Amino acid sequence: MPSHVSAFAVFFASIFTSNILLTNYLGMCSFLAVSKEMKTSVGLGAAVTFVLAVTTPLNWLVYHYLLIPFNLEYLRFIVFIIVIAAFVQLTEMTLERYSEPLYQSLGIFLPLITVNCAILGASLFMVIREYTFVTSLLFGIGSGIGWLLAIVAMSGIRTKLRTANIPPALEGPGISLIIAGFMAMAFMGFSGMIAVS
Amino acid sequence: MAKSKLLKTFTEPLGKNNPVFVQILGICSTLAVTNKVQNTMVMVLGVTFATALSAWTVSLLRKLIPSRIRMMVETMIIAAYVILVDIILKAYYPEMWKQLGPYVGLIITNCIVMGRVEAFALTNKPLPSLVDGLASGLGYAYVLLLISVVRELMGSGSLWGYRILGSWWTNWAIMIMPPGGFFILAIAIWMIRETVGKEVSHA
After folding, report:
1. A106-122, pLDDT tens digit by residue?
2. Is B29–A180 a contact, with Cβ atoms under 8 angstroms apart?
3. Residue B186: inside a domain, yes or no?
4. What residues make up the domain containing B65?
5. Would you say A51 and A113 are in contact if contact means Cβ atoms under 8 Å apart?
């Protein structure tokens, strides 16, 4: 990733043209499993956005100020996972202790998030594309919003599907994947605007 | 452990308990590289290696791991094997390593690896766990390879980088783009469920 791409472009690209779910297939497991209800989708999407927005820049700091000076880049997988898991755990405990309503709406989704590929994926992309700190922050937020957008749209469509007549073998994950394919095509329509691979 | 039971552990994930079709697990990190057969091969080998050996290791340590922090310990073990894969790739196949980008690292969060460790290795002896992990990896591998064959053949008219279809073939660009992956996986799941006709749990 050339560094001249503006942070702003990366922000929009991560929401639309290179949506982390629809173009990189990251976070598919929870996307398929949790997209049945609109309310839970919004909760999970918000939790993912929050965690992505914090862990991506956090991992940037860890990578550039801890791993590179000590030549430990090859340990980044383990270190990123630890940072993500620790952050998620801390957030969950804080929410549980201080804000009951927020915990009920957001906190219960947090344990699901540690193993969400999108979170680790964003951190790894951030390293490979050589983003700056600000770009990483915007990339994290953008990826989260993109994921939220995709899962909320999906759950909206799935609500309608309940009354639809689907071939039995295609029910559940099958039809969801086809819808995801169409959504990916729709999101590709944005690629004329900004192209960041 | 009786031999027949080991054999059953091996064959189940290949067929009626296939991680991709039946459990819809672990498509996150690998679906992205199915637009080329070569990339897919490397990725599924990595996943199989990581699944089998992490299951074996966790099973060896299963009595020592405190249950409260077991997820963390399991993740560390998986990450260690994935780092091995990453380093080997980087050293011997730097071109491939560059193409796969972040996806090798994402094997860590592949649900299949964690799934087998949690569901099988924690309660079984090392040898069956190794077999189970290996079989789950292979069950996953052949499905993904199948998808990649279709995608590369239709999308680029080639297989393993060699042009197979003549110049008369017009490449279906959509196949190598993201939507193609979704469609082919959906169609594959549809076909399998239609023919096998098994009632399976809905994700």
Report:
1. 777 777 777 778 898 89
2. no
3. yes
4. 34-140
5. yes
